[in-house]
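Supplementary Note 3. Input sequence used for the single-chain structure prediction.
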Amino acid sequence: MKESSIAHRMQHNHMRLLKTAKLNLVSLMDIFTILVFFLLVNSGDSELLKVSKQLRLPDSVAEMRPESTVTVTVTESDIIVDGRPVATMDDVLSSNGMIPGLAKELDYLASKHAELNEEEKANGMALTIMGDHTIPYEILKRVMVTCAKSNYRNLSMAVSRIENAGT
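The predicted structure, written as discrete structure tokens, is reproduced below.
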């Protein structure tokens, strides 16, 4: 006896539904590959210096982008080198020019630094000072003197970039 077309179609669909489904991961892997490359390319535009919420940097129309260097953060109560507190304001005010905790940390970082290239021999190692706009100049001067005596003479000051109002 010949099977009707409806019965044949029902049997065919029934057999098709009994098979286990196969998952094709090629498309999913393609999407994730593209996503990884996109994130890698666009991650370089992030801010280099992480500014604490308690700091308000001075405003500037500087055009140069900051380089990744050792960062000395000067707050109202502490001096922090790359996230590690090294001195308090009481230490700074009681010192006679040099800040011992800061000098010790900078000397330690300099000892871990590879051999100096010609530019670093001539200008000293690079360092960025990040301080609140209300920090007195006398304290910043003591920080700069300590940095210079520890062979960090290529100093940069971190600022908040504003658009040039004159152009």
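The first strand starts at residue 59 and ends at 60. Residues 59-161 form a domain with the Nucleotidyltransferase; domain 5 fold (CATH 3.30.420).
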